[in-house]
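Quick check before the chapter quiz. The format below is the same one you will see on the exam, so make sure you can read both the input and the output lines.
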Amino acid sequence: MKRKAPKPGLLDRLRRKKNLREQRRLGVCWYTEDAWSIMADAALDDLVKTGLRPVKVLVEANAFKAWCVAHNKPNDAASRAAFVAEMLSQNRAATA
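Here is the expected output.
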């Protein structure tokens, strides 16, 4: 009859778990403030060229979070669009 190998100790299991986490790297696209501003301005210019009249609406993070909770919405692009549309329709938009 074969003997079972002893179960690894707690420290060994924690080290293995840490090593696995370190191997699961995920790249996240992140822009500098200047690069983001340039890209946003270019997007606005493109909208103007199509005949639209875009309005910059400042989205305050805490206000948006409260709105999401009140409307049972996730924090995603569709909810941000709905939030901005509501702010514009109620003339409560803080513009940039």
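If your answer matched, good. Residues 4 and 41 are 65 Å apart (CA to CA).
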